[in-house]
Amino acid sequence: SDPAIPPSPDRPQEWEIMLRLAGALVGTPLPEVDVRAMDDLYPQGIIYTACQAADTPLFGRDPAAVFAELKGVGPERMIDLGIRV
């Protein structure tokens, strides 16, 4: 759901802050964390694993092609993945 008080447009969204912190936890200095790359990394890992597992609907599919079909970024992309799988 949308936040009760909309954030300022010049501020990062909560999911972007969480990804920046996750990058810092693996050793990347905070200013150098590539939020877009981190945002891509998580769904790509899930997709790759699902494409290798025989008991999933993605088994045997090309992970890059599956990832390219997803829409949005951040939580919206994860919801799209959840609906498609």
* Strands, count: 0
Structural class: mainly alpha
SS field, number of helical segments: 4
The string of secondary-structure elements, in order, is: HHHH
Largest sheet: none
Shape: globular
Low-confidence stretches: none
Give me a quick take on this structure.
The protein is mainly α and 85 residues long. 56% of the residues lie in helices and 0% in strands. The mean pLDDT is 93.
Task: Provide an overview of this structure.
The protein is mainly α and 85 residues long. The chain has a domain at 33-84. Helices cover 56% and strands 0% of the residues. The chain has helices at 14-25, 35-52, 63-69, 74-84. The two termini are 22 Å apart.
Topology of this structure?
Layout: H1 14-25, H2 35-52, H3 63-69, H4 74-84
Helix pairs in contact: 2-3
Question: What key attributes describe this structure?
Answer:
85 residues; mainly alpha; 4 helices; globular
